[in-house]
Write a structure and sequence with these properties.
about 650 residues; alpha/beta; seven-stranded mixed β-sheet; 21 helices; 23 strands
């Protein structure tokens, strides 16, 4: 039978099921297929914190959302166009996110009374399809026995029913791959490699995947196939990459470009653990990884490695950053290059381990005793985690300081196409190790003697010299007690302490001299409203501004990579605009810093629900400010959010 092919410019699909249904794998494979096809894309994995959440319950639902398009997109999408629900809980947990007219493909097999009760359904909603009281009446619902068809398709392999049913996610993937014209060879190759040692499981998954594809091709339930053409991209070699993977590669690049070995001292913590896993694979690039017994041991080892001449790195999330605070202060005092990666998650305390948040900015700025300034950088997208990590390494090595890199769960687990950079385009980082004595002093007998002073300052950067232990003649003291100016000897002198506190702050401030001017996105040059953000809010802010501009109104956008010190031109930029909006996944931390430093009335748009900000809602807030600033009525309702 002939099938109609319909052109679309973008689609948002969400796969949802029990945490044991393989939704993350299904979404990841669909994402890889879309990347191979050449679409621009963004993803949003969302899963429970428990290793094995209660089966069939709302808290146990795992989902994976992928937004793919034939044009540049910035977010994983506000609302799915298609929901694939593998059980009643998955349907109920995600139904509220669907817009009117969305398509729902639902596996009917698990709609038993027990599972309906677990999900809080008094009546099976699938029994009411087409009735006057149909709770799904505003959606396009396709009830299919995905599990039953999967079991039937793979029965030749002699698996138990339970093992056979586990391949239902591959059946669903095959069906969706057919519906949207995804290339399937990469998935088949993936399954062949993943299950190479278990032939029956390998063949069952491949067969289920092909059966799903063939079902779409032959069934009368689906008469339309959709086509989303590849997105135009600049020339280069691309790959799909997650934020944690890109960050790992950036740290490796920092080691290669500086000629330093990389040492990672880390304690596993969600959502940062994948960085430890990835870096452990790259001994060939001079990377050494230590899984320490706790957070403090991890950073202690990293500081020791920095003292010994390595690029010290430690990775954590918010709770671990709190535990590392005294040791970060030690790295400030000893002025050693150290990269501290904080992949932020919902808090406080243990909080929401698998959800995203931006609530560690003030902890990064001030979460140490005494005056202990630390530079802070933040990536804006999964692929940008590479650049942020390389920049953090540059600052740490050049200025002899710990640097905090603030990623978050959305960036860490999300993915996008990433253009692999040319090595020749990466910056060279010079560690400029001390190799000779640097100070002439007069001895008691009147003779002049050459000494090594570890706390002299470079005139440009105010960085102290970095001598590898064991270098003849460059022996020196180091530790957490205040240092005397120049010599580094222990000093309790009040005036010296005041000087050292101020010089360490001045060194961090001096970093601003090396930063490029901020790029302000203000196409008309007539905007009165500026939207400023940091980190992963880049996508929702950009999409929200697009929506406002598409409706015919003016708005400017600027995004911060460097949060301490701020870029030198930020104050002047803020003064150009009548109103400044600051969207954050916290209760207003950047807003507080901007108000304190620049005396600007930064208006907060704040959300702390563990999920990314939605572009359409943010666009409404931007439109409201534009209306106030320009004295006009802003109507965004005819416009569709360009995400």
């Amino acid at each position: 039978m002939s099938k109609q092919v319909k052109q679309l410019d973008r689609v948002i699909i969400r796969f949802a099921g029990d945490s044991g249904d393989g939704m993350q794998l299904t979404g990841d494979r669909f994402t890889s297929e879309s990347a191979v096809f050449g679409n621009d894309l963004m993803t949003l994995p969302n899963f429970p914190a428990e290793i094995r959440a209660p089966q069939g319950t709302l808290p146990g639902v795992s989902s994976f959302q992928v937004h793919f398009a034939d044009h540049d997109i910035l977010t994983a999408g506000d609302a799915p166009d298609v929901l694939v629900a593998m059980n009643p809980a998955a349907l109920k947990a995600n139904l509220g996110d669907l817009p009117r007219g969305a398509a729902i493909i639902v596996d009917t097999h698990d709609f038993t009374k027990r599972n309906l009760d677990k999900a809080g359904y008094d009546v099976n909603p699938l029994d009411l399809l087409g009735d006057a009281n149909d709770p799904l009446g505003e959606f396009q619902v396709q009830p299919l026995d995905l599990t039953g068809m999967t079991v039937e398709a793979v029965k030749e392999f002699g698996l138990s029913r339970k093992d056979a049913a586990r391949a239902k996610n591959m059946f669903a993937l095959g069906l969706l791959s057919w519906m949207y014209g995804r290339p399937i060879d990469s998935t088949i190759s993936f399954l062949e490699k993943r299950f190479a040692k278990v032939a029956d499981i390998r063949d069952a998954n491949i067969t289920a995947f092909k059966a799903g594809w063939n079902f779409g091709e032959t069934t009368e339930a689906f008469v339309v196939q959709y086509e989303i053409k590849p997105a135009p991209m600049s020339a280069g070699t691309y790959r799909n990459i997650s934020g944690n993977l890109a960050l790992s590669y950036g740290l490796i690049a920092g080691g290669v470009q500086s000629g330093l070995p990389v040492f990672l001292g880390s304690y596993p913590i969600t959502p940062a653990s994948d960085i430890l896993h990835e870096l452990s694979k790259h001994k060939a690039f001079g990377v050494t990884t230590l899984q320490a017994e706790d957070e403090i041991a991890g950073i202690g080892a990293a500081i020791g490695a920095a003292f010994a001449g390595s690029l010290g790195v430690t990775t954590t999330s918010g709770p671990g950053l709190a535990l590392k605070s005294e040791a970060i202060g030690l790295a400030v005092m000893t002025e050693l290059p150290l990269v501290v990666v904080d992949v932020q998650r919902g808090g406080p305390s243990t909080g929401l381990p698998t959800k995203t948040e931006q609530a560690d900015l003030l902890q990064a700025m001030f979460g140490r005793n005494g005056e202990a300034p630390v530079p802070i950088v933040a990536p804006q997208s999964p692929g940008d985690c590479f650049n942020a990590a390389l920049e953090a390494a540059r600052i740490a090595i050049t200025y002899r300081t710990p640097v905090l890199l603030l990623s978050d769960g959305y960036l860490a687990n999300g993915s996008e196409p990433w253009r692999i950079p040319e090595i020749a385009d990466l910056p060279t980082i010079d560690p400029a190790f001390a190799t000779e004595r640097n100070q002439t002093v007069t001895a008691k007998d009147g003779t002049e003697v050459e000494e090594y002073w570890p706390y002299l300052r470079d005139e440009d950067t105010l960085a102290r010299p970095w001598a590898i232990p064991g270098t003849p003649g460059l022996e020196h003291r180091i530790g957490g007690i205040e240092k005397a100016k120049g010599t580094g000897n222990i000093s309790y002198d009040p005036a010296n302490h005041d000087y050292m506190v101020r010089i360490r702050q001045a060194k961090v401030d001096r970093i601003a001299d090396s930063l490029p001017p901020l790029e302000v996105d203000d196409p008309s040059g007539e905007a009165k409203v500026l939207v400023i953000g940091w980190g992963s809010t880049y996508g929702p802010i950009g999409a929200g501004c697009r929506r406002v501009r598409k409706a015919g109104y003016n708005v400017a956008q600027v995004h911060l990579r460097h949060l301490n010190p701020f870029p030198k031109d930020l104050g002047e930029i803020l003064k150009r605009y009548d109103k400044v909006l600051c969207p954050e996944m916290n209760l207003g931390q950047l807003s507080l810093l901007l108000r304190g430093k620049y005396l600007v009335d930064a208006i907060g748009y704040n959300q702390v629900n563990g999920m990314p900000i939605k572009a359409a809602a943010l666009a409404d807030a931007i439109g409201g400010l534009v209306a106030e600033a320009e004295g006009v009525t802003v109507d965004l309702t005819p416009q569709e959010a360009s995400q």
